[in-house]
Amino acid sequence: MKSNVGGIDRFLRISVGIILVALAATGTVGAWGWVGLLPLATGLIGWCPPYNLLGINTCKNKNV
User: Whole-model pTM?
Assistant: First the structure.
């Protein structure tokens, strides 16, 4: 798996993921908040399956 999620993209995914999971865990939002696990995981891993299918790459280093 080559990395296809760049720095700013990763930061935003991790931030949004943490916020959504925290809100879901505290009961502030409904169960849909657990969807935040998806951007959190893709941000931590650095690879996004839909990006791969669509040919999108926000990573500056294309060889990683």
Answer: 0.88
